[in-house]
Design goal:
The protein is α/β, with parallel strands linked by helices. The protein is built from eleven helices and twelve strands.
């Protein structure tokens, strides 16, 4: 397993994808957005590879920082097979609703942040469940309803299911953007991850972490802390200020990778759905 830093927005350690081996040759775990494909190409070249050497793309979920480049990669490499959850698959084939929602959220920043969002031909899409090319794939909901993770030989390809953690830091951020963060489901996911007994967690944001039990414990504590703050009426700016204080010296890095205002919105939506009155 090899990590490729995509230098999203010109910053290191923001988005990384993984070059992994499968029973059917080399694969990428997540693609990053289309705005980082030059960095992806450079990262592959550093390992002596081109995009056309990659046989499979294993997606954790369809958020643009993880899967936004999938369609353009398939356009460049029509032999690429894309694995995604059953819930996420229709949005890869027709990303129009996903793009509309993201443009509403990001406005004029959309193009610079994410670039083109191209459809993936249905013939290239496979449903990620069970045994995927020698990787055990299982649902890891909570961050998103369409999230899956993959595990093999002690390595869990976590996507965002294990949160965000900067290299060398102990703080684990339970990134919670709208629309479908689910606190209870995320606790079940943490239990499911533990049941697979991984020795290391490969995070897209960012890097590989080997203190698995401590990491998951911290994730769940912070998830409950965030949930309770929003449930009890904390407004957006106060939430951001408190979360930045929790993150300490790495607050800027966390906020850049996983904007805290978005997580407040996600948690607010979660509680509004549970308490519509």
């Amino acid at each position: 397993m090899r990590l490729i830093d995509l230098h999203f927005g010109g910053s290191p350690r923001a988005i990384g994808v993984y070059l992994v081996e499968t029973d059917d040759g080399p694969a990428l775990f997540d693609s990053g957005p289309n705005s980082t494909t030059e960095a992806l190409d450079a990262g592959l070249a550093a390992h002596g590879l081109e995009l056309t050497d990659i046989r499979h793309l294993l997606l954790s979920h369809i958020h643009l920082d993880h899967a936004g480049a999938a369609g353009t990669l398939v356009r460049r490499h029509p032999g690429l097979t894309v694995w995604v959850s059953e819930v996420g698959a229709p949005h890869l084939v027709d990303p129009s609703r996903l793009e509309k929602s993201a443009r509403r959220l990001y406005g004029d920043l959309f193009n610079a942040l994410w670039g083109e969002l191209a459809p993936v031909p249905e013939t290239n899409v496979r449903i990620a469940t069970g045994d995927v090319l020698g990787w055990a794939c299982f649902p890891t909901q909570g961050h998103a309803s369409h999230h899956v993770s993959y595990v093999r030989d002690g390595t869990l390809l976590a996507g965002d299911a294990a949160g965000v953690r900067m290299p060398g830091a102990s703080y684990v951020l339970p990134v919670s953007p709208p629309p479908d963060v689910d606190v209870e489901a995320w606790h079940r996911t943490a239990d499911a991850i533990r049941a697979h007994e991984p020795e290391r967690l490969a995070l897209i944001h960012f890097g590989v972490h080997e203190d698995v039990d401590e990491h998951l414990d911290r994730l769940e504590r912070e998830l409950d802390r965030w949930s309770e703050r929003v449930r009890d009426g904390m407004e957006q700016q106060a939430f951001v200020d408190e979360a930045r204080a929790d993150a300490g010296a790495d607050a800027d890095a966390y906020d850049r990778v996983a904007p805290l205002w978005q997580s407040w919105q996600g948690m607010k939506r979660y509680w509004d759905k549970r308490n519509p009155a």
